[in-house]
Structure formats: structure tokens, C-alpha cells
Amino acid sequence: MALWFGLILAGIGAMQWGSQRVCALLGDLRKHWGVAETGGGALIGLATASPEISVNIASVALGWPDIGLGTALGSNVPALPLVFVIAYLSTRWHRSKLLEERREDPASVPPPKPMPQVKEQAVWLQVLPYLLVVLLLAALTLPPGWQGLQPVDGLILALACGAYLVRALKAPGERVECDAPGRKVLAALPGFLAIAAGALVAVLASRRVNEALGISDLVGGLFITGLLCALPESFSAWRLSRAGRATSAVSAAVADGIYSLTLAMLPLCIVGAAVGDVALYALNLGFLGMVLVGYMAMNSKVVAGEARISLLTPTRVGLFAAGYCAYVAAALHMVV
């Protein structure tokens, strides 16, 4: 089993390497087109969600759609709580370094910001659409008689994804003068190949690990493949937050989640995949919805237009971390 688990890691590593190549291309396009930071998160989210999309395509092609469904959900559920915690820790660590440097040279070092600051656009352009997508997916797949994914569901999800992307890209931003990213297109081509090959390897290996552990493909996708897919994306929040780009960290995680619950679901919709364990599936969607509602409720002044930024305070970060621990306990109780 160690060999198969190692192949899962290798496949996910290849997909992450490929998605970073594509991210570099889309990042340059964002600057060249003058897309806002939150809109850029929506654009880059296409690249960061490519592993989940590719895993779903591979899992459907190989006849194991529950692996893809579990991976899409399993990469979404821990993403935002992890991003919030990592962004906060990164900012605090960077703040302590700046304070130390400021004590030595107060004239040249600016005062550090006290905590991660997320622009108000991230709520309206990212978090609210994410919540609407979660509610839409629940409405399409959970009611008795409608359970499962059908081609018409895929059409509705694709339209919702398109509306989100168009709205996000229309947000005003400052155009940065830079060379046309023509060479980056060629540099990104190996990335697309790595994503495809990594997805195939990860799905094949995941199936073997699930069989060895005696767990369902949905559970394996949720707690093994999906979680491993989420970790590299979430830990990128450390670098972004340290650079004062907490908005980009949150926006990219949210955009990734939106694409994972819309575009990544299209292969499953085409083949009419069943939900599998309905209670576990509902728990995941419910937790995602609670995280998003909780974030908006904690930033009610931002939602009401009375503040320009939302802050990730220790109390808020602690609540999200505790909520995720409660989710894990509930999920393990259901599957053990």
C-alpha cells in the first residue's frame, strides 16, 4: 500500500507543479488585462482547480466517479479554514519580524499591519457567489427524487460558473504595463501535460489505497486524495499573506472552490453519477455553507458597506479551526 500512497503523492505533486505553471501564465494575463486583485483570484482559480477537474475526468473515464466527487468535496472543505489559519499565522510571524526591525531602525521600516486584511470585494465577488454555488448544488442533488448528478445539472452549474467568472473579471483594476505573455503560453504547455498525467496516476493509486483500507471511494476521495490536493493550495496562503496579499489568498481559495463545485462536476453530470453516501455528502455541503455564512456574519460591516476591509482576528480564526475539527469528528463518526 505504501507504493500506491506514494504514487498518489507523486500524481498530486505533478498536478500542483503543472497548475503553478498555468498560474504564472494567468497571473501575467491578469496584469496585462488590468483585472482587479479579486478578479485575478477568479482567473487564477481556474489553474488551482485544474487538479480537481482533471481527477474528475480521470475517475469518470476509469469508471470510479466517487473518487472524483470525494476529491472535489475533500479539497474544498478544509481549504478556507486552512487559509484563514495560515494567513493569520503568516501575518503574525511577519509582523513580529517587522517590529524587531523597526526597533532597530524606526525611520526606515513602516509600522506593520496588525492582522490579515481582506478587501471588501472578496466578500461580494467571491464569498457570496461561493455560497450561492453551494446552495445551488445542494438544491440540484439533495432533494428526494433528484439525488445524483444529471446532464441538466451540469448545464445549470456551467451557466452559474460562467456568470461568476464574467462578474469577477468585470471588477475594475489597474492595468500593468508588461510584455504580452506569449512565451508564458509555451512554458505552460508542460504544465497541462503534467496535470493530465498526474490525475491519471492519482486516481489509479487512490483506487488501490481505498481497496487496501476497505473504505469507499467517496470516503477515500474526501479524506485522502481531496485533503492532499488542498494542502499545497492552502499553504500558498503563507507566501501571499506574508507579502500583504491576504485578499489574493482568500480569493484564490474561494475561486478554486467554486470551480471545483461547478466545472469539476461536469464529467460526473455527463455520466449521471450518484451521490453515494447522501448523509456524508450533505454534511460536507452543510459545513461549507456554514463556513461561508459565518465569514459573512463576522464581517457584517463589510457586507453592509460600512467597512472597506475584513479582518482575520484570533477569535475568528479560532472559530473556523474549531468548526473544522467538529466537522472531522462528525464525519469520522459517520464512516467508522
Q: What does this protein structure show overall?
A:
- The chain is mostly helical.
- The protein has helices at residues 2-33, 37-48, 50-62, 65-76, 79-104, 121-141, 151-169, 182-213, 217-242, 246-260, 266-270, 278-298, 300-303, 314-335, and strands at residues 117-119, 309-311.
- It has a two-stranded antiparallel sheet.
- The radius of gyration is 20 Å and the shape is globular.
- Terminal CA distance: 20 Å
The major beta sheet can be summarized as: 2 strands, antiparallel
Percent of residues in helices: over 70%
- How many DSSP helices? 14
Which consecutive residue ranges, at least 5 long each, have pLDDT under 50? none
Q: What would you call the structural class?
A: mainly alpha
What is the oligomeric state here?
A: single chain
Mean pLDDT: 83
Radius of gyration: 20 Å
Physical arrangement of strands within the biggest beta sheet: 1-2
The overall strand count is 2
Q: Tell me the series of helices and strands, N- to C-terminal.
A: HHHHHEHHHHHHHHEH
Q: Beta-strand level of the residues, as a percent range?
A: under 5%
Please tell me what the overall shape is. globular
Q: How would the blueprint of this fold be written?
A:
Layout: H1 2-33, H2 37-48, H3 50-62, H4 65-76, H5 79-104, E1 117-119, H6 121-141, H7 151-169, H8 182-213, H9 217-242, H10 246-260, H11 266-270, H12 278-298, H13 300-303, E2 309-311, H14 314-335
Antiparallel strand pairs: 1-2
Helix pairs in contact: 1-2, 1-8, 1-9, 2-7, 2-10, 3-4, 3-8, 4-9, 4-10, 5-9, 5-10, 5-14, 6-7, 6-10, 6-12, 8-9, 9-10, 12-14
